[in-house]
Amino acid sequence: MDLLLQFQHILESDPLILYSDEIGFVHPTQFAMLTEDSTGDAAISDGTTFWSRDHKLGVSTQAVLPLYNAAKRAFIAAMEEYKRLGDGGDGLESEVMKHSKALLLLSSDFGTAWNSRKLVVSKKQQLSMYMGELLLSALVLSCSPKSDQAWSHRRWVIKSITGKCSALQEILGKESELVEKIAERSKMNYRAWNHRCWLVSYMTREQVLHELKISRNWAGLHVADNCCFHYRRRLMLRILKDSTCKLENASPGFSVEVSEVWKEELDWNEMLIKRYIGREALWLHRRFLSLCWMKQFSTNLHDVSCHSD
Questions:
Q1: How many CB atoms lie within 10 A of CB 274?
Q2: What is the per-residue pLDDT across 268-290, written as a single tens digit (0 to 9) for each?
Q3: What are phi and psi of 51, to 5 degrees?
Q4: Cβ partners under 8 Å of residue 278, min gap 6
Q5: b/e map of 231-267 (b: 16 or more CB within 10 Å)?
Q6: Model's pTM, two decimal places?
Q7: Which residues lie across from 57 on neighbouring strands?
Q8: What is the largest CA-CA distance in the chain?
Q9: What is the tens place of the pLDDT at every residue in 216-251?
C-alpha cells in the first residue's frame, strides 16, 4: 500500500499533471537519463519507481502490476463501503474518486471504476466535477489513446452537460482538437475519429462549416487514413440534412450555397487523386461525393446556372 500512497501523493501534489497529458511507463534503467535530460524544478524520483518533473509523470514498468493490484483492492474496498452506507457515504466519495483515478491511469478500460465516477459526479451535479472528468479522461487517453471506456466517458460528460453549460460549443471545439492531436500520434485510431463524428450532432451549422474548413489540411496530409475522410462525410451529411429540413422555406441561394460546398470538395478531392495516385480513401470519398451530387443536386438544381459546369 505504501507504493499506492506514494503514487497518489505525486498526483495530488502536482495537479497540473492532469493538464499536461503526459504520463508514461518507463523501464527503471531510464530514470537516470530522464533526470539528466530534464530542465526546470527539481525532479521527484526515488530512482527506480516514480519520476515526476515539469508536470510530467513516469512510472516504472516493474511497479505497474503491484501498483495496479494495490489500487484495485483499495478501490473495491472504498466502493463497497460507499454503497453499504448509501446516502450516509458522502465522506467516502473522495476515497472512491481518488482510488478510481489511480486505477484508471494504470488500467484504462476498468469499466467499474469509470462507472463509480459517473455515480459520484451524477449525484453532485457540479459543473466543475464534469470538467474534471474531461481532464482525467484526456490524461488517460494520453497513454491509452484507443481506450473505448475513456472515449465513452467523454461522451457521457458531454451528454450530461448539454443544456446546462453555456460554453458547450467551446468544449466541442476543444474535443475536436483533442481528437486531431491524438490521431497525429496514434495512426488509424478509429475510436478517436468515431468520437469526433459523434460530436457533429451537437454542433451548430456555423461550427460544422468551420470544422469542414479546418480539417482539410490534416486530411490532405493523411490521405491514407480513411477515418478523417469519413469525418468529412459526416460533416457534409449534416450540412445536407440541415439544407433538406429548410428547403421548403429556403431561398434558391441556400441550395446554391450547399452545392458550392460539394463542388469545392469534389475539386479538392480531384486534386488529391492526381497528386496521390491509387489512394483508396480518396476514391471512396469521391464515390460518396458523386452519389450525393447525382441524388441531390443534379435533379434539384438543374436550373441553377452554377451547376452547368
A1: 9
A2: 999 999 999 989 999 999 999 99
A3: -140, 130
A4: none
A5: bbbbbbebbbebbeeeeeeeeeeebeebbebbbebbe
A6: 0.86
A7: 23, 52
A8: 76
A9: 999 999 999 999 999 999 999 999 888 777 655 555
